[in-house]
Structures are given as structure tokens and as C-alpha cells.
């Protein structure tokens, strides 16, 4: 079920682009259903692993969230904690995929040395400025904080900021294009399965 809802999300993203329609509300419904399916998968795995549960509050079947709550209560009372299984995701949600790529890009440019402080003299306080120096890239800093940048330093900083913004835009566009292609692939798979059922 999670896999099917993953496919629905991929196709919806592609359809929104190709049909020039805002399908955000439908996408939200699919996202909610996907989240509920993931919860159900995890709860079912707790039952399958014979995780200890506290007594049910009703005589009816427990909902997934109730299974989690009953297991948490049992753990608080001394039972061994069992980790619920997580379903394999075929396609990540669009925002998850974009954030993952941007995070990976950001981590690749992280600074590994201590960030220096501004070298300017803060006249209003009568001492050296204690703010951090402006960051330009991995292990690369300007001698001043943003507030004390001179005209040339501010130009360097703004140019670097604009380049980073453009790189982020390109990374985001690349991820979205890949998600669109995955949606087209899934739609083609659906059409082929339908054709095969019709032919048989």
C-alpha cells in the first residue's frame, strides 16, 4: 500500500506539471494516506514481532496509533522495547527528496576549522568586534562580520551568496525533473498493466 501511494504521489507531481493544474489538495490527501499507511505498517510489524502491549481500552480492534501507545505504556511498565519496521520507499516525497539533496550539498561545503571573529574595532563599544566573520565557503572567511564589511568585501559576499542561491536553484530543478520523470515512468507502467489485463 505504501508503494502504491508512493507511485500516486509521483504521478500526481507529473500530472500537475503536464496538465497545468494545481493538484496540491489532492496531493495532501495522498500524503496523509501515505503517512497513515506507514503508521499501519509499523503497528503491524509490532504485532508480528509479538511486542508486549498494555491492555486495550476497548473491545474493538486497536488503531495503529493505539498500538504504538499501548506498546509505549508496556515499555514504561518494564517491557522490552521493540522497534517497528519501516517500509521500503520507492519514491521519496518531493520535498523530502529536495531537502535531502540540498542537505547533502550543504554538508559537502561545511567548514572544518573554527570560524574566526571579526577583526574590526567596534567604536560604539570601545573594543574589538566579537561577531563572527562573514562565511564565504568551506574554510573561507572574510576578515569582518557582515556589518563591518567594506564595499569590496560586501560585493564579494553578495556575489558568493548569489552563486550559492543559483546552485541551490539548479539542484532543486534537477530533483524536480527527476521526480517528473519517475512519475512518467509509473504512469507508463500503469498503462501497460491495464493493457495487459485488457488483452488477457
Topology (elements, then pairings):
Elements: H1 2-18, H2 24-48, H3 64-76, H4 94-108, E1 121-122, E2 127-128, E3 135-137, E4 140-141, H5 151-199
Antiparallel strand pairs: 1-2, 3-4
Helix pairs in contact: 1-2, 1-5, 2-3, 4-5
Helix share bin: 55-70%
User: Can you count the helices?
Assistant: 5
| Helix/strand order | HHHHEEEEH
Give a short account of the largest sheet: 2 strands, antiparallel
Give the low-confidence spans: none
Classification by helices and strands: mainly alpha
Distance from N terminus to C terminus (CA atoms, Å) equals 25 Å
Apparent shape: flat
Report on this model:
The protein is mainly α and 200 residues long. 60% of the residues lie in helices and 4% in strands. It is built from five helices and four strands; from the N terminus they run ααααββββα. The strands form two sheets. Strands 1-2 form a two-stranded antiparallel sheet. Strands 3-4 form a two-stranded antiparallel sheet. Strand 1 and strand 2 form a beta hairpin. The two termini are 25 Å apart.
What labels describe this entry?
about 60% helix, mainly alpha, about 200 residues, two-stranded antiparallel ribbon, two-stranded antiparallel sheet, 5 helices
